[in-house]
Design goal:
Radius of gyration: 22 Å
Number of domains: 3
Helix content: 40-55%
Strand order of the largest sheet: 5-6-4-3-11
Order of helices and strands: EEHHHHHHHEEHHEEHEEHHEEEH
Structural class: alpha+beta
Length: 339
């Protein structure tokens, strides 16, 4: 079996009999090694001692007094977030259960990066055994922001952090506007995934350096649908079928889920009867029709009608998919089996 997404830290977790991931001391230690929690050069002794003691015993109790003793206000905030997150992970039956709870109740007391990291771990578990690099690349949208561009008439998505790093590297090298214009690809040195190079994904899955041709490659669009199906089945225990569509043809559509803030805004406008202008339509990255295998899991207000998923880019051509919306936003009946 091929390995992928080592950076997710899945090897630091334990898979339980129910299929979910269990947090381990090793996973907590990995979080403690993050730059945000490493004591800076000017850290006080209390912060250094707290960090050292947790590295020695990642599950040891940390009191409010321990955190209040830290001299730096930012450090106190960071450690408050981290300890709350740690305690949540350790107490829960699975990381999946933590994610579902955060998605439904809100994660206002946690930095967004924690939710993204949880998503990364859970997706790695859900996609265990996947041998399709198109699906794995599409799954990166769930935990990595993407930069969109249209190149040769096709909508391309590239990892936003990688694009930004490339931009800075080119700027540092004082590359001329002419050389930038002559770049053979829309995102500089990044490869657009196709059948000829998809196999190379396995050796660089943690580099996030392959561009997704969402607008021009049917395999990429199909892959996004497969990830959505797997995500919902893994977290909610509900079987669904997803397929991309060009438009909402059903005049009696009952439900939609915005997969990001812009998608939600567009969906609300359409729901209220507004006609999508060219600018709005141009921002839609993917329109997906979702149907449930068993309507007993669906809210009676929706019944056997499909649910439409809207993914869009913002004014800066950024795509920030919120997978938690698929957990909190689907019209599920109370009989659904959730984590």
């Amino acid at each position: 079996m091929r390995e992928f997404w080592v950076a997710s830290g899945h090897h630091l977790t334990r898979r339980a009999d129910h299929g979910g991931l269990i947090a381990t001391p090793e996973l907590i230690m990995a979080y403690l090694a993050r730059p945000e929690l490493m004591p800076p050069d000017d850290a006080c002794d209390a912060e250094r001692n707290l960090h050292a003691s947790l590295l020695a015993d990642p599950l040891r109790p940390v009191s409010k007094a321990d955190i209040a003793a830290l001299a730096d206000a930012d450090a106190r905030e960071n450690w408050t977030f981290m300890m709350a997150f740690r305690d949540r992970l350790v107490a829960a039956p699975s990381l999946e259960a933590v994610y579902v709870s955060l998605a439904r109740k809100g994660a206002t007391d946690l930095p967004p990066i924690f939710l993204s990291q949880l998503c990364h771990l859970i997706l790695r578990n859900a996609l265990e055994g996947c041998d399709d690099p198109y699906i794995l690349r599409a799954a990166e949208l769930f935990y990595r922001s993407q930069k969109a561009t249209v190149h040769d008439g096709a909508l391309l998505l590239a990892d936003a952090e990688v694009v930004e790093a490339q931009h800075h590297a080119q700027h540092d090298l004082h590359s001329s506007p002419l050389s930038a214009m002559l770049q053979p690809q829309a995102f500089g040195e990044m490869d657009v995934m196709d059948d000829a190079n998809a196999w190379t994904y396995w050796s660089r899955s943690d580099a996030h350096a392959m561009v997704m041709n969402l607008g021009g490659n049917p395999k990429a669009r199909d892959a996004l649908c497969r990830v959505i199906e797997r995500w919902i089945a893994h977290l909610l225990g509900v079987a669904v079928k997803a397929e991309t569509v060009a438009s909402i043809e059903d005049r009696d559509w009952r439900w939609f889920v915005g997969l990001d803030s812009e998608g939600t805004r567009i969906g609300n406008a359409l729901w209220n009867g507004d006609t999508a202008g060219s600018d709005t339509a141009g921002r839609i990255v993917a329109l997906i029709r979702l149907s449930f295998d068993d309507v007993r899991f669906v809210d009676e207000r929706v019944g056997n009608k499909p649910v439409y998923l809207i993914l869009a880019m913002d004014a800066d051509k950024m795509v920030r998919l919120k997978p938690q919306n698929l957990v909190a936003g689907l019209p599920l009946a109370s009989t659904a089996n959730v984590a």
